[in-house]
From TrEMBL:
Name of the protein this chain belongs to: Glycosyl transferase family 2
UniProt entry keywords in alphabetical sequence: Glycosyltransferase, Transferase
Pfam families membership: Glycos_transf_2 (PF00535)
Domain Glycosyltransferase 2-like span(s) in chain numbering: 6-185
Coiled coil stretches, renumbered: none
Family: Belongs to the glycosyltransferase 2 family.
Gene3D superfamilies: Spore Coat Polysaccharide Biosynthesis Protein SpsA, Chain A
Organism: Spirosoma radiotolerans
GO MF term set: glycosyltransferase activity
InterPro entries referenced in this protein's UniProt entry, alphabetically: Glyco_trans_2-like (IPR001173), Nucleotide-diphossugar_trans (IPR029044)
SUPFAM superfamilies xref list: Nucleotide-diphospho-sugar transferases
């Protein structure tokens, strides 16, 4: 069994592989590098075989998004290659830096309760700023809205070393997610119904309810392009983010009697957020929010079964951020994590 497997999921991402894979290989510290291809229709697989013979290529039969794709890929590594103690899942549009692995592995080795962690994520294009997907570790407020140290909604902090510590967080980003392999497989991996976006937050919530911890490591850093497979301007991204946020909230919220009032309040707040799209004439995004809510209601029987199953298996309640990040950001004008 390998100590660490570096696993990159790819879908039609040959330009990113050509650009970023050499640095991954150069800084792999002897650990195996896998590329799991989700039935790309470009020349990704032939390009990899011709130019990167050291990479172990896994050809998946179809595109099942981030969640389903990694479930298939990591199970393949476990059964066909003997598995690994840890996995790291860098997106194909991640630029790694020298020494990025050793602080992460040291953190995992020092604390067996840590089942997931992440490095600092900076923007590839604006290199001193934190990047949207994860920044320096994420949190979830009491309505299910997510935010990060270094990035709250559209405010991106400059990295001046303010988050160079190692600390426990609520969720670690899927853009560059380190995890204990045994915990991943024991929990059934990601919820494949999410397809993409927030599946890692859902998984982090679930593993904490089993008594594991999630951390951010300030001594490791990578750069992220963002939107490499699905650009942030694509309405389908809006749909997945709003739908999956509701999926996650319903499945994992404690049995305190306040679930449905929160869902109804989310309906109102999500409707108000559509006014931001209306302001700039982005009608497809407004329709995406409406579709996301109808998709959520249509999946309630399945989600209810999942909720009951999780409650029968998991006993540790997880503390969410006790305030509304929407209120603090838009009304109280608190724009950074340090102000919260």
């Amino acid at each position: 069994m390998d100590t660490l497997a570096i696993v990159i999921l790819n879908y039609n991402g040959q330009p990113f592989l050509a650009k970023f894979l050499p640095a991954v290989l150069a800084n792999a510290d002897g650990h195996p590098v896998y590329v799991a291809d989700s039935a790309s229709v470009d020349s990704s697989v032939s390009f990899l075989r011709a130019n990167f013979p050291a990479v172990r290529v896994i050809e998946l039969p179809r595109n099942e998004g981030y969640a389903g794709g990694y479930n298939l890929a990591l199970e393949h590594i476990r059964t066909q290659y003997g598995g690994a103690k840890y996995y790291v899942l860098p997106n194909s549009d991640i630029e790694v830096t020298p020494g990025w692995l050793s602080p992460m592995l040291a953190l995992l080795e020092a604390n067996p309760r840590i089942a997931a962690c992440q490095p600092k994520i900076r923007s590839y294009d604006q290199r001193t700023l934190f990047e949207h997907a994860g920044a320096a570790g994420g949190f979830v407020d009491w309505l299910g809205y997510v935010f990060c140290r270094g990035r709250v909604f559209a405010t991106f902090e400059t990295d001046t070393g303010q988050y160079d510590d190692n600390r426990q967080v609520f969720w670690a980003t899927g853009a560059c997610l380190f995890m204990r392999a045994d915990v991943f497989h024991q929990t059934g991996g990601f919820d494949a119904s999410f397809f993409a976006h927030m599946e890692e937050i859902d998984w982090c919530w679930r593993i904490q309810r089993l008594g594991h911890e999630v951390w951010a490591c300030g001594q490791s850093m990578v750069y992220h392009v963002g939107g490499g497979t699905l650009h942030k301007s694509n309405p389908h991204k809006t749909y997945l983010n709003y739908r999956n946020s509701l999926f996650m909230l319903y499945k994992n919220w404690p049995a305190d009697g306040w679930l449905w009032p929160k869902i109804m309040l989310r309906l109102v707040l999500d409707g108000l957020s559509s006014l931001l799209f209306l302001k700039v004439g982005q009608w497809p995004d407004i329709w995406a929010i409406i579709r996301a809510h109808f998709a959520f209601y249509g999946q309630l029987p399945r989600l209810h079964r999942q909720r009951n199953l999780l409650r029968s298996q998991q006993t540790t309640e997880v503390v969410l951020y006790p305030y509304s990040i929407v209120w603090q950001y838009f009304v109280e004008k608190k724009k950074t994590f340090k102000e919260m």
